[in-house]
Amino acid sequence: MIGILDLDMGNLRSLSKAVYSFGYDFVMVRSAKDLDDATHLMVPGVGAYRTAVSHVDGQGLRAGIRAFAASGRPIAGICLGMQILSATGEEGGESEGLGLVPGRVVRMTPEGGLHLPHVGWNTTRFKRKDHPVFHKVKDGRDFYYVHSYHLRCDNPDDVLAETDYGANVAAIVGHGNVIGFQFHPEKSQANGLRLIENFCGWNGQC
Amino acid sequence: MLKKRIIPIQLLLDTRLVKTVTFGSYRDVGDPVQSSKVYNAQDADELVFLNINRGDRTLAPLVTLLEKVSEVCFMPLSMGGGVRSLADAELLIKHGADKVVVNSACYRDDRLVTQIADKFGSQAVIVSIDARGTADGGWQLFSDCGRQPETRSLEEHLRAVVQRGAGEIFINSIDRDGTMSGYDIPLIQETMRHAGIPVIACGGAGDYTHMKDAFLTTGVSALACGSLFNFGDNQPIRAKAFLSNYDIPFKVI
After folding, report:
1. Does the beta-carbon distance from A189 to B74 stay under 8 Å?
2. What's the whole-model pTM score?
3. Which residues of A are catalytic?
4. How far apart are CA B21 and CA B23, in angstroms?
5. How many domains does the structure of chain A reveal?
6. What's the rounded Cα separation, in Å, for the pair A23 and A38?
7. Domain B5-246, CATH class in plain words
């Protein structure tokens, strides 16, 4: 059973439809007890960092998600959901994230007069190619991004893939059984769907 | 490198897709769910749906459609036509929209764009602007599906909505709509000069050379096409194959 965190922000329909289409059942996670049935947890999200983490705390989920991660079960963050896996963020006011991927989320400062948000399809280069979640996804493909903030990892090895938008941007981050996508795999057609399918079948080892 | 986008635009009248010419003369062009499936298979970059029914400005037709389209399309979906409040935007996003398109409400309610951006992020708000050329070479803005002239200039309006938190601008030429005579390049240039955020241009695509001219002359982020893909044997894959000859970058999948 794939848990999908519902922070009452944004569109969860595409992700749940994708998970279901691969033959997995899903449960919408709205409280800590919903995590009991989940083998995997997906953390989607749009909006602001501070709002998202305050929803996590408001729903009493912080300790539950951290315990879920400590149990070795796989967790995937998507877009803002990936960002709140970090230690801290500045969007909407300084706030503490879930602390599963060491690093800080800051506003992007692209060079060359590029606009924010960074929106559209961008080339994504793997720094680490053998991760089980990347199975059958080729290097250098385009994925769909929409964001103005990005995660700066403390540990360079946690950056599994990068994209370029007036600077290097962490596209996929990973730390043990935790993985995070800055782009939207559920909006990135065939290659994005493959990442979701691979995640649903991942045992958390890498 | 960030890629250029090609966005089929689908206009809804009740449960059917239609195509207009200069915002009038509706022609039925099919079923929206079927056509979205086809665009998904043709690797379109995003889809935009606009409810243009002047009689029914409720969101019910968009919600019904979203539920079906989000099962068959795994790409960004934008919805608009009748969005007047934060609650309207929430309804569409909850049912599967990634971005909402707001137009007329931006002239009446100064807070709406900010409210949506605060809750869902700027990237979730596309401000759509309908413009018609004037005799002196400027532009007149219209709301209410092209019926209501507005007093604000293009520059003033752009400045206002960007400052309030719009994530993208969708600029639509009423004069060129459905004419298949080419994009209004000066309008796109004027919009980009004042926007400072990604611009999607719409209105006038009749063949792939029109797209080439618009991309190469203006550097616009995305082009929307209605008639071009509705009529004849044109589609996003072929458009990209043609445009790639001019070093215009598109996604690799």
Report:
1. yes
2. 0.92
3. 79, 184, 186
4. 5
5. 1
6. 15
7. alpha beta
